[in-house]
Amino acid sequence: MISLTSPVRTRAHAWPATAKLAALAIVSTVLFLVPDLRLQAAGLVAALALYALPGSIFMRHGLRQLWVIWPFVALLLAWHAFAGNWPEGIRTALRMTTAVALANLVTMTTTLSEMTDVIHRLFRPLRRIGLPTGVIEAAIPLVIRFTPTLVTKGRLLLDAWRARSPRRANWHIVLPMALLALDDADHLAESLRARGGLIPDEEN
């Protein structure tokens, strides 16, 4: 597993995680309520400006993480081009890119323990009525941590395929990718069992 928090310290690192996540939810909602393409483009420019404020190292680190969404943006644009609805495709691509960029910005400036604390507080009403929330509280940060690891392993599989075959990988890496994910999940389960497992938290 790797840390998603930026190594470059910014002022946003000191802001409360609850405030950052609430702001992210509000801005994302506004993005999906505003149909104007110019405002959507302005939103993306503003998000990129936030990446630039702490300096070039922070910006390069953030944009490198954002690069993984380009296949989804390309697929989205291609589909809308095929359907003859370019404006809607551009609008949706701008919304998605801006929302992911802002979410990545929050992740880069918030530690996983702060995220877990917020989730723990949000689930407090559910614990009071007796629902076991410990598994969900543990699963959410694990997904956040493991996603870039799986993306990196997917790239390594593609590189290994290209080194051995002149043909495109396409669906051929789906099975080894799934086996790698299952293997990682198995190792993680063993590690959790060795540490006592996921005991439901009774704390209110």
Automatic annotation (TrEMBL):
It is a multi-pass membrane protein. It comes from Paracoccus aurantius. It comes from the Bacteria. This is Energy-coupling factor transporter transmembrane protein EcfT. It is found in: Membrane. The chain crosses the membrane at residues 12-33, 39-59, 66-86. InterPro entries: ABC/ECF_trnsptr_transmembrane (IPR003339). Signal peptide: none annotated.
